[in-house]
Amino acid sequence: MALLIQQFPTLEPELRHSAADLALPAQLRCFADFTRHAALEGRLVRLRACLQLANVLLNLHDEDLTAAIRHAYLPALHLDDVPQDPQLVRQFMPAPLYRELRRLPAHG
Question: Does 13 fall in a domain?
């Protein structure tokens, strides 16, 4: 997950710990926590950057990465619980990533 570390160096210790067992879903859940905290703290610039990076990862069209985004990252966001209007948060989400979010059972 070099791209995550390159964009967000403060994630490196957590991602390195998650990478110990080479679990891509665990790494993306860690990134989802980071994204969620940006939303909870009102750090909208960081939130937008996180969502854009998740979209870049989705658009790499790597089967394992796409599955991890669908089944680990997106479900772990819990964006309905953030203090900002969920619609505002979702406006920051690129369309392909939002389409994947809408496919989740809780959002469909």
Answer: no
Question: Are residues 54 and 73 in contact, defined by beta-carbon separation less than 8 angstroms?
Answer: yes
Asked whether the beta carbons of 103 and 96 are under 8 A apart, the reply is no
Q: ∠ CA(33), CA(83), CA(108), 5° rounding?
A: 70
Q: Residue 94: inside a domain, yes or no?
A: yes
Q: How many domains does the chain have?
A: 1
User: Closest by alpha carbon to 26, among 99, 76, 98?
Assistant: 76
- Domain of residue 72 covers 24-102
pLDDT tens digit sequence for 66-92: 999 999 999 999 877 777 666 777 788
